[in-house]
């Protein structure tokens, strides 16, 4: 179980009734063995740290233990801002005890066996979504990216074809996505960002520009596609805030107010 930046790993021997608890926090690691069955140890941990109405910035769920499945949603609910799911079916067990109106971001690895999650109301209604595609043999995209209506979309996809970025830019322009909507893609090298610039200039008539609020910094360089009198689509790149090899950079696309960029 991982809550914000604190992580607990509990593994036990049912016969010997020994449980090993590993705790990893900000610059701190703790390992301890106790004379208690692992399910009971996990239950004690949750009862102590995750009381009813606890506010959680980010909850990572791999497995939902039986005692948690039996919690009464009328008496026990958690206020979770970001939910990261690490299994295809765990959402069915954890959702009843999470307040959906507090959920702002959904984060999961997308595969064929959980593609249906994209149609779930709790996913559709979240403001932000992060989809992680397996490095090898990811599911076919088809129109998946075009159908995402979230305000903030984050994608991890190894060597996403530039054709998909072009299709998305065309779609966002034609559908007049609202101001503030953004898309980000983890990429290996900044050269990918430059290749996207070239493609959008060649195919869509994008204008080489710089983002005014970033001044003359190198990372202010971008390309701009007008949407309407009030907005423009700005495509730019920069270092990834949290590097996850091989993804060192981020390609970003954002709908900004008209005039946010200056043509070079």
From TrEMBL:
One Pfam family hit: DUF3557
Protein name in the entry: DUF38 domain-containing protein
Organism: Caenorhabditis brenneri (Nematode worm)
InterPro entries in alphabetical order: DUF3557
């Amino acid at each position: 179980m991982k809550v914000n930046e604190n992580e607990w790993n509990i593994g036990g021997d049912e016969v010997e009734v020994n449980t090993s608890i590993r705790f990893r926090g900000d610059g701190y690691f703790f390992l301890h063995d106790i004379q208690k069955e692992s399910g009971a140890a996990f239950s004690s941990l949750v009862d102590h740290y995750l009381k009813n109405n606890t506010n959680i910035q980010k909850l990572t769920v791999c497995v939902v233990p039986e005692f948690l499945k039996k919690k009464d949603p009328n008496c026990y609910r958690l206020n979770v801002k970001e939910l990261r799911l690490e299994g295809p079916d765990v959402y069915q067990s954890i959702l009843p005890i999470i307040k959906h109106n507090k959920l702002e971001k959904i984060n999961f690895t997308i595969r064929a066996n959980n593609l249906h999650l994209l149609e779930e109301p709790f996913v559709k209604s979240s403001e932000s979504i992060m989809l992680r595609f397996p490095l090898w043999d990811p599911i076919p995209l088809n129109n998946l990216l075009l159908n995402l209506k979230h305000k903030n979309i984050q994608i991890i996809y190894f060597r996403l074809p530039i054709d998909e970025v072009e299709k998305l830019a065309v779609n966002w322009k034609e559908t007049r996505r609202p101001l503030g909507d953004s898309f980000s893609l983890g990429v290996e090298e900044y050269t990918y960002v430059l290749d996207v610039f070239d493609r959008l200039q060649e195919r869509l008539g994008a204008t080489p520009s710089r983002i005014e609020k970033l001044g003359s910094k190198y990372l202010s360089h971008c390309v701009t596609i007008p949407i309407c009198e009030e907005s423009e689509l700005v495509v730019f790149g920069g270092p990834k805030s949290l590097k996850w090899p091989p993804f060192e950079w981020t390609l970003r696309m954002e709908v900004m107010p008209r005039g946010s960029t200056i043509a070079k």
